UniProtKB/TrEMBL annotation, chain A:
The keyword Transmembrane helix applies. It comes from the Bacteria. This is Transport permease protein. Keywords: Antibiotic resistance, Cell membrane, Membrane, Transmembrane, Transmembrane helix, Transport. The lineage of its organism: Bacteria, Bacillati, Actinomycetota, Actinomycetes, Micromonosporales. The chain crosses the membrane at residues 29-51, 57-82, 103-129, 141-164, 171-191, 230-249. Residues 27-252 form the ABC transmembrane type-2 domain. Belongs to the ABC-2 integral membrane protein family. It comes from Micromonospora qiuiae. PANTHER family: NODULATION PROTEIN J.
TrEMBL record, chain B:
Keywords: Antibiotic resistance, ATP-binding, Cell membrane, Membrane, Nucleotide-binding, Translocase, Transport. It comes from Micromonospora qiuiae. It is a peripheral membrane protein. This is Daunorubicin resistance protein DrrA family ABC transporter ATP-binding protein. Residues 7-237 form the ABC transporter domain. One of its GO terms (molecular function) is ATP binding. The keyword Nucleotide-binding applies.
Length: 254, 320
């Protein structure tokens, strides 16, 4: 069969593989599904009472927890990519002429699937404990778009981290950054409460416009330029991540 | 049309940073049969296999697999070969059948054909009973069998096996040897690297000995033994005293010694006149030697003879 004709098959098979492996990876399921829910409960019931946001804390915190989910989901993507590199699977696939795009794309799509499932779960629990978003279908669609774009960027970035790391443990370490980034942002506390030097960072890092967009779109409040800035950040990060993975892939595998 | 050689290397060179791994390696392996790449650690076996399997780019030299250049025609090479590396590259959390079906689909088979191919391979490698179990539960031998089965999904004509039996118990190793022999019998060219001389001796039709990134010798096991491992006369002595005395007297000429069995060996060409005169020389009173044996060289002797000195190409480029 010709090269071009094989590509869709390769992509489909690789996606199927990664989704199946995700489903069977109990550790990753617990981290990417249960941990965000637990963290949300923690924030709402433990810290929420002490944090003044001008609305019910659960309403304030949900967008942040959704992004935290993405961080956890991303972590296992990096670990899976590094595992494939270290156990020889990528070499086997390369000698079978499977391209870099289906190999990494399989992991990215599986990461998206995991994240979408955990997002739905978190939203469900959030509604159960008092989260009341505005019913505004077009804005929901826009929120979903922003979130998906963010997930895509984070997933590719993690795949690139996975190619950078020498061991699965190291890959896990790299993703710490992605998991930590939501904290110094407007995800959990209003940035106005932070000291000046941190506020500057929090206002201008990629997570904040994403959070502001989600919050505004879900609660039907004005969003200003936040969605545009969020999209610009995500597309920029995505471009960097895709480029970086292409370079790293070629360097790790001839 | 004459079939191109399975593998043809001309003046292959490869360095990693300052370390020269392959230093002008040239060799040719005809199509068909089992070929072994033998050499001490660091001789360049794995690098050679990786270059042949299109995973590492050579610095210079020409490398062809079944007539296709591994750099320019890497696509075509990939459709011709398969590689089973040092670790069984399989998904632990997929079942044996799922692994094979996945790889068969990637090799271009339709869903149905892939399932049939997986079933046939599982049957052939005696894994049908465990096909539905996740690979994480497999024993070392079962993993290697599945790995070998996995490298056959695409019906390759040349298979590279990098240390296929490392870490296996003797029974599993035996089983894998039989499977590799069957593969070659079915017309596939097998190139394996190994540290086990017995494995090369048992399995390989032709053996290439690598040393210091170059070809030290090449031929059938019998040819190599004839050329590089002289025969030896093994002498058993009556008692510990005569053994010690002979060991002292022959000193430098002793090639092997086994004090526990009071055995000493000296070099011989195996001819009757030479053996007779040797016996007279080492035991003039005819009281010390109680038994003698003319031993054929083993592949171990060949290996030691060829790799006992610094290799022709072993050098690190000075970093000044």
């Amino acid at each position: 069969m010709s090269e071009l004709a094989m590509r869709p098959t390769h992509a489909a098979v690789m996606i199927g593989r990664c989704v199946r492996l995700s489903r069977r990876n109990i550790d990753a399921i617990l981290t990417s599904l249960l941990l965000p829910v637990i963290l949300m409960l923690l924030f709402v019931y433990l810290f929420g009472g002490a944090i003044q946001t001008g609305s019910a804390y659960v309403t304030y915190v949900v967008p942040g927890v959704l992004l935290l989910c993405a961080g956890f989901g991303a972590a296992s993507t990096a670990v899976s990519v590094t595992t494939d590199l270290t156990n020889g699977m990528i070499e086997r696939l390369r000698t079978m002429d499977v391209g870099a795009t289906p190999i990494l794309g399989g992991h990215v799509v599986a990461s998206m699937v995991r994240n979408i499932v955990s997002t739905v779960l978190v939203l469900g629990v959030a509604v159960a404990i008092g989260f009341r978003p505005a019913v505004e279908p077009l804005r929901w669609l826009a929120a979903a778009g922003v979130l998906l774009l963010f997930l895509l960027a984070m997933s590719w970035l993690s795949a690139a981290f996975g190619l950078l790391a020498r061991t699965p443990e190291a890959a896990n370490g790299y993703t710490f950054m992605v998991m930590f980034l939501p904290y110094p942002s407007s995800a959990f506390v209003p940035v106005e409460t932070m000291p000046g030097w941190l506020r500057g960072f929090a206002q201008h890092q990629p997570i904040t416009p994403v959070i502001e967009s989600l919050r505004g779109l879900l609660l039907n409040t004005p969003v200003g330029s936040a969605p545009a800035r969020a999209a610009a950040w995500c597309l920029g990060l995505l471009a960097v991540a895709v480029l970086l993975s292409a370079v790293l892939f070629r360097r790790r595998i001839a | 049309m004459l079939e191109p050689p399975a593998v043809e290397l001309v003046d292959l060179r490869k360095s990693f940073a300052d370390l020269v791994v392959l230093d002008g390696l040239s060799m040719r392996m005809p199509s068909g049969g089992v070929h072994a790449l033998l050499g001490p650690n660091g001789a360049g076996k794995t690098t050679t296999v990786r270059i042949l399997a299109t995973l590492t780019r050579p610095d210079s030299g020409s490398v062809r697999v079944a007539g296709h250049d591994v750099v320019r025609d890497r696509r075509r090479v990939r459709r011709t070969i398969s590689l089973a590396g040092q670790h069984a590259a399989l998904d632990d959390e997929q079942t044996g059948a799922e692994n094979l079906i996945m790889l068969a689909r990637l090799a271009g088979l339709s869903g149905r054909a892939a399932r049939d191919r997986a079933a046939a391979l599982l049957e052939r490698f005696d894994l049908t009973d465990t096909a539905g179990r996740r690979v994480v539960t497999y024993s070392g031998g079962m993993r290697r069998r599945l790995d070998l089965a996995a490298s056959l999904v695409g019906t390759p004509s040349v298979i590279f096996l990098d240390e296929p039996t490392t870490g296996l118990d003797p029974r599993s190793r035996q089983g894998l040897w039989e499977l590799i022999g069957e593969l070659a019998g079915a017309g596939v060219t097998v190139l394996l690297t190994t540290q086990y001389l017995e494995e090369a001796d048992r399995l390989a039709d032709r053996i290439a000995v690598l040393h210091g990134g170059r070809l030290a010798a090449e031929g059938t096991a019998a040819e190599l033994k004839r050329r590089f491992g002289a025969q030896r006369l093994e002498l058993t002595w009556r008692d510990a005293a005569s053994f010690a005395e002979a060991a002292r007297r022959l000193n430098e000429r002793v090639t092997h010694r086994e004090p526990a069995r009071r055995e000493l060996s000296v070099a011989t060409d195996g001819s009757a006149p030479q053996v007779r005169s040797l016996l007279d020389e080492v035991d003039p009173d005819r009281r010390g030697v109680v038994r003698f044996n003319v031993r054929e060289a083993t592949l171990d002797d060949v290996f030691l003879a060829l790799t006992d000195r610094p290799g022709p190409g072993v050098r690190e480029v000075a970093n000044v």
